[in-house]
Amino acid sequence: MPLSTAHVATARSARYIKQLVSHMDHKATATLTPDGRGTITVTAGTCTLTPTPDRLELTASAPDEERLARVEDVIARHLVRFAAQERITVEWTAPLYGGDLDPTHPLVGEYLLAHHTPADGILGELALATREAAGDAAHMQVSADEGALLTMLTRLTGARLAVEVGVFTGYSSLCIARGLAAGGRLLACDVSEEWAAIGRPYWERAGVADRIDLRIAPALETLRALAPEPVVDIAFIDADKENYPFYYEELVSRLRPGGLVVLDNVFLGGRVLDPAYREDRYVTMRRLNDLIAADERVDSVMLPVRDGVTVARRR
Fold it and tell me: Are residues 8 and 148 in the same domain?
């Protein structure tokens, strides 16, 4: 089955997806998820539409190249018509086949987003609110599949005490809080009340606000004020990269045996893999990745999830 993609530069991606889904619903199967992703299935094949702050990402698939071309044509024609005031262009890639894809291809990412337990309406609306409020900064929010992973890991550890470093608008906080055992608590550390305030109403609607202790202060101060006993069940680090080694050290020493520390963005867009990048954040992450791999206190695995996720388990 061939596939193709197109990245359409626009700041109105969410609007165009809603228009396309609404219009096509009368002549095809068209659905819209709470976070704004659309799927349109016509006779020839299917197209998924993903909004980002600065572009609309399209992925088309069909049983053969002839029908793929028809899917591309239908979606492009309608999109150009709805976006007439912008004069956008839709340029599709050459057809690709599953056997030609490596695990890091964007098409694989789209497939992953479509094949995890779906984010519910509250998470979807929070993702949409974040995108609308944060613009280009919305990339700091974890993806839906990574959020599902955080909930699963929290549940698997039976966590009663979780710590998060880097809240942003609270999507990951909500995912972790939902996975806590009865009576569990999440200590959520951030320095921005403004961003965290976006998430608070969604925490309330999800019924987990009473489980989240939000501390607006430098995270190192908050962590160093904790008792030294190893009582933390799971910790998630997704904040300023230069301080990752300090966050890791404060948290791993407080993990109970079998507890987890999860670190996001350990690839930093792939630049960590290239020694030519010498800025502080890349050098720091590179050294930390080496340190964790050699740390005798933990067993660790680095996963190619989004921008790289490391999971370390305290021995």
Answer: no
